[in-house]
Amino acid sequence: MIPNQHNAGAGSHQPAVFRMAVLDTDLDHILPSSVLPPFWAKLVVGLVAIVCFARSYDGDFVFDDSEAIVNNKDLQAETPLGDLWHHDFWGSRLSSNTSHKSYRPLTVLTFRINYYLSGGFHPMGFHVVNILLHSGISVLMVDVFSVLFGGLQYTSKGRRLHLAPRSSLLAALLFAVHPVHTECVAGVVGRADLLCALFFLLSFLGYCKAFRESNKEGAHSSTFWVLLSIFLGAVAMLCKEQGITVLGLNAVFDILVIGKFNVLEIVQKVLHKDKSLENLGMLRNGGLLFRMTLLTSGGAGMLYVRWRIMGTGPPAFTEVDNPASFADSMLVRAINYNYYYSLNAWLLLCPWWLCFDWSMGCIPLIKSVSDWRVIALAALWFCLIGLICQALCSEDSHKRRILTLGLGFLVIPFLPASNLFFRVGFVVAERVLYLPSVGYCVLLTFGFGALSKHTKKKKLIAAVVLGILFINMLRCVVRSGEWRSEEQLFRSALSVCPLNAKVHYNIGKNLADKGNQTAAIRYYREAVRLNPKYVHAMNNLGNILKERNELQEAEELLSLAVQIQPDFAAAWMNLGIVQNSLKRFEAAEQSYRTAIKHRRKYPDCYYNLGRLYADLNRHVDALNAWRNATVLKPEHSLAWNNMIILLDNTGNLAQAEAVGREALELIPNDHSLMFSLANVLGKSQKYKESEALFLKAIKANPNAASYHGNLAVLYHRWGHLDLAKKHYEISLQLDPTASGTKENYGLLRRKLELMQKKDV
C-alpha cells in the first residue's frame, strides 16, 4: 500500500506515479532495464566514477597540496589534536592577521589519519581516499536524484519508493563523469569539497526523512530528522564553509516542494485581492513554521560560532586574486561578477578548457558595456530567468519540483563563491562547482526527458547522451593524468590561460626545483612582464640571479619587490643576502632586521644574519643569531654547524664540543654535525670518540672527500699512519684538487720513507 501523504509536487497519488513512469519510459531507449534495480544502478555509477579518476591514484602532491599537507604541521603527531580547532586549513593560527580564515578542521583530521596510516607523506593513500570518496558520493547521488525526480512517497512500512530509476541513474552517471570534478578528486586538497558534499547530501536526505510519517511517533520522528539534518549541515561546514548552504536548500525544498507553494497562484490571488489568500495552508502550517524556526536558529548559531572562532575580520585578499572586487565602479564590479557566473556555467556545459588557476590576468576585466563578452551575461540571465519562471509559475507540479530543486542545487551551494556576501580569493575555481553540478545534472536530465517526449528521433538523443557520457569520461581520464605531476598540470594551463602570470611563475618554479635555471629565468621574466607587481616572481628570479652571481639585477628586482610589498619578509632576507655578497654590510644588516620585524619567527633569516656577523668578525653577535635560529628551528643543521665551526676556529674547544653534542641529540643522524664534532674531538685529543664519529659520518656519506681527508689527519696525529695513508688516498681519489690533502699526504709519505730508511 502507498499512502497519499507527502506526495511531493503532485496533487494526488495516481497522477504522480503516472507522470514519473512516463518520464522514465521516455528514457528507456537510453538506459536498458537490466541496470535499473537500485543495487545495480549504484554499482554501475560507483565503478564508472572510479574508472574516470583512477589514473590519478599514484600522482604526486601538486599545487596547493604542498602547503595544505606537506608543509602543514597539523598532520604530524607532534602537534596536539586540539590545535586543529584553532588553526586554519593551512596550519596557521586563525587569530593571525595572515591567516586565510578557511576553517576546515574535519578535513585536516582526515589528512592526519591518512598521514598516520601511510607512515608519512606518501601521496598514493591520500589520492585513493579522494577517488573512493567521489565514488561514494556518486552512489549517494542515485538516492538524491531519486528524490528530486520521483518525489517522496513511502510504503506502509516506511520505505521510500524509487519512482524514477532511469532518470536518477542517468543524472548520477552525468555527475560521476563530469570533468569539472577533476580538481576535487585528483588534487588532494579537493577533499574539503568532497567531504562537504558528502555531509551536505546526507543532510538533505536526512531532512527528506522528516516527512515519513510513523504512526504515533510522527511529530517526534520529524523533529529528530530535522535536528539530525542541521547537525550534518554543521559537519559539512566543518569540512568546508560551503556546507552551511544545505540549510537554505532544505528550506526551499520544504516550502516550495513539500508545502507546494505555487508562486503563480499566489500572485494571481494578490492581483485579484482574493480573500482566500488569508487562509493559505502554508501560512497556517505549524509544522512548517517550526521546521523553519529550527533551520534558521541552526544556521544563525553556526554562523555565530564560526565568526567567533575566526577571531579577527575576514581574510585580506589582493587585487591579483580577485581584480573585479577591487574595481572602483559598482557597475564594473557587477558586470564582471556576472561574467564570472557565466564562465562557471560554461564550465558545467562544456568542461573542455580546464585550468588549475584562473587568476592574474587569465580573465581580463570587462570595463565597458561595449565589450562583446557582455553577450555571455545576457545569455546566462535569459536562461536563468526562463528556468525560474517555469520553476515557480508552471501549472505542472512535477515540472515545478524538478526545476525548483535543480535550480536550488545549482545556485544555493554556489552563493558563498559569488562575491555577493563577501570578497572571495579567486576569480573562477572549478572546485566550487562540485555541488552546483548536481543541479546542472538535474536540469540536463530533465531536458533530455523533455526532448524524448516531443521528438521521434529518440535514437539520435540516445546517441547524444551516450556520446556526452563517453567524451566526459575520456576527458576525466586525460585531465586526471595532467594532475599527476606539477609539470604536466602547469603546462596544461598554458593553452587555456596564456596571460596568467601565475601559470608562468609555477612552471618557472618547477623548472628551478629541477635545476633548469636558464628555462626558469625565462618563465619568471614572462610572469613579471604579465604582472609587473608580481613580487613572488621577482623574489624567485632575484634568487636565481643571485646564485648566478648577477648581483646587480638581483638587487634591483628584490628592492622593487619590497617596495611594492613592504612586509614581504622573504624578499627582505634575500635582499640582505645579495647586499652581503656586494660587501654592503650595513644595508644587509638593515634588510635582515626588517625581515625579522615582519616575521618574528624566521630561523633562516637569523642564520643569514649570523653569517653576516661572522664575516664582520662580530663573533658574539654571530653566535647569538645562530642560537636564535636553533631555538626557533631545533633541526637547523647549518646554524648548529656554524656555531661549532666558529667556536672551533676561535679556540673554544670545550664550548664547541658542548654545542656539538647538544646538536647531535636533536639531530642524531646528521652526518655534517658528526663531522664537525669529530674535528673538535680530534683537536681535544679524544681520538677514539673522534674516530667513531668520522666513521659514522663516512658511512652516511661515503663520497665526501673532506670526511676521508680529516679522518686521515686524525690518524696522522694519532700515529696510525697506514690508516692515514689509506684515507688520504681515498680522499684524493674523490677530490684530486684538494691542496691541503695533497700537502698532508706528501708529509706522510716523506715520514713513511724516513721510517723505512731507519728500519733499513
Automatic annotation (TrEMBL):
TPR repeats lie at residues 501-534, 535-568, 569-602, 603-636, 705-738. It holds the Pfam family TPR_8. It is found in: Endoplasmic reticulum; Membrane. One of its GO terms (molecular function) is ATPase binding. SUPFAM superfamilies: TPR-like. The chain crosses the membrane at residues 131-151, 188-207, 219-238, 244-267, 288-307, 374-393, 405-426, 432-451, 460-481. Residues 313-385 form the DUF1736 domain. The keyword Kinase does not apply. InterPro entries: O-mannosyl-transferase_TMTC, TMTC_DUF1736, TPR-like_helical_dom_sf, TPR_rpt. Its main location: endoplasmic reticulum. GO terms for cellular component: endoplasmic reticulum; membrane. GO terms for biological process: endoplasmic reticulum unfolded protein response; outer hair cell apoptotic process; positive regulation of endoplasmic reticulum calcium ion concentration; sensory perception of sound. Pathway: Protein modification; protein glycosylation. Its EC number is 2.4.1.109. Keywords: Endoplasmic reticulum, Glycoprotein, Membrane, Repeat, TPR repeat, Transferase, Transmembrane, Transmembrane helix. Transfers mannosyl residues to the hydroxyl group of serine or threonine residues. The 4 members of the TMTC family are O-mannosyl-transferases dedicated primarily to the cadherin superfamily, each member seems to have a distinct role in decorating the cadherin domains with O-linked mannose glycans at specific regions. Also acts as O-mannosyl-transferase on other proteins such as PDIA3. Belongs to the TMTC family. This is Protein O-mannosyl-transferase TMTC4. It comes from Pongo abelii (Sumatran orangutan). The lineage of its organism: Eukaryota, Metazoa, Chordata, Craniata, Vertebrata. The gene is TMTC4.
